Amino acid sequence: MNAKSAISKEIFAPHDERMLGAVQVKRRTKKKIPFLATGGQGEYLTYICLSVTNKKPAQVSITKVKQFEGSTSFVRRTQWMLEQLRQVNGIDPNRDSPEFDLLFENAFDQWVASTASEKCTFFQVLHHTCQRYLTDKKPEFINCQSKIMGGNSILHSAADSVTSAVQKASQALNERGERLGRAEEKTEELKNSAQQFAETAHKLAMKHKC
């Protein structure tokens, strides 16, 4: 079981929560933390996790989870409600970068993800979650690459493609209908001509017979 699956099972499942995404991080600028604040357990790994309650109405949280060196278990640390998130800073919109900042109502952290790809995936999940669960006071996403914010654009593009295909199909059916209509008119004309010819021939035959 990988670390994120273990966090989901150990930290969130017991509280009837579902983990939506997580990113392993390190601080870009180290904070001076008293020895007692860490429990004297030395080095640790940090994960920023996004979770939602299974119970309605859904509550979405961003939680800092740590795993101390030499331990196989995880510890829930600081937690914020999604509504407290004010700004998500991707640092550089022009290149893949693992750095990012999170600004909350009462906190500001500067992070470096384990990889730029992992940060990108987490940002996409975070952005989608904000759009889905927040009706107002949505956080500001700045200095983010277009692929992170592109979920809606992709959907719109797909919708446009479908609409275009439907319009083309409709136009083709209309053109086909017009051709069929013209063919039916021509058939009717030929039928009438044949009928008129038959009547004329019958009249001539009767006249000749007389």
UniProtKB/TrEMBL annotation:
<dbReference type="GO" id="GO:0000145">
    <property type="term" value="C:exocyst"/>
</dbReference>
<keyword id="KW-0007">Acetylation</keyword>
<keyword id="KW-0472">Membrane</keyword>
<dbReference type="Pfam" id="PF15277">
    <property type="entry name" value="Sec3-PIP2_bind"/>
</dbReference>
<dbReference type="GO" id="GO:0005886">
    <property type="term" value="C:plasma membrane"/>
</dbReference>
<dbReference type="GO" id="GO:0006887">
    <property type="term" value="P:exocytosis"/>
</dbReference>
<dbReference type="InterPro" id="IPR037822">
    <property type="entry name" value="STXBP6_SNARE"/>
</dbReference>
<dbReference type="InterPro" id="IPR042855">
    <property type="entry name" value="V_SNARE_CC"/>
</dbReference>
<protein>
    <recommendedName>
        <fullName>Syntaxin-binding protein 6</fullName>
    </recommendedName>
</protein>
<dbReference type="GO" id="GO:0005546">
    <property type="term" value="F:phosphatidylinositol-4,5-bisphosphate binding"/>
</dbReference>
<comment type="subunit">
    <text>Part of a ternary complex containing SNAP25 and STX1A that can be dissociated by NAPA and NSF. Interacts with STX4A.</text>
</comment>
<keyword id="KW-0963">Cytoplasm</keyword>
<feature type="domain" description="V-SNARE coiled-coil homology">
    <location>
        <begin position="151"/>
        <end position="210"/>
    </location>
</feature>
<dbReference type="Pfam" id="PF00957">
    <property type="entry name" value="Synaptobrevin"/>
</dbReference>
<comment type="function">
    <text>Forms non-fusogenic complexes with SNAP25 and STX1A and may thereby modulate the formation of functional SNARE complexes and exocytosis.</text>
</comment>
<keyword id="KW-0175">Coiled coil</keyword>
<dbReference type="GO" id="GO:0035542">
    <property type="term" value="P:regulation of SNARE complex assembly"/>
</dbReference>
<dbReference type="InterPro" id="IPR028258">
    <property type="entry name" value="Sec3-PIP2_bind"/>
</dbReference>
<dbReference type="GO" id="GO:0006893">
    <property type="term" value="P:Golgi to plasma membrane transport"/>
</dbReference>
<dbReference type="InterPro" id="IPR037821">
    <property type="entry name" value="STXBP6_PH"/>
</dbReference>
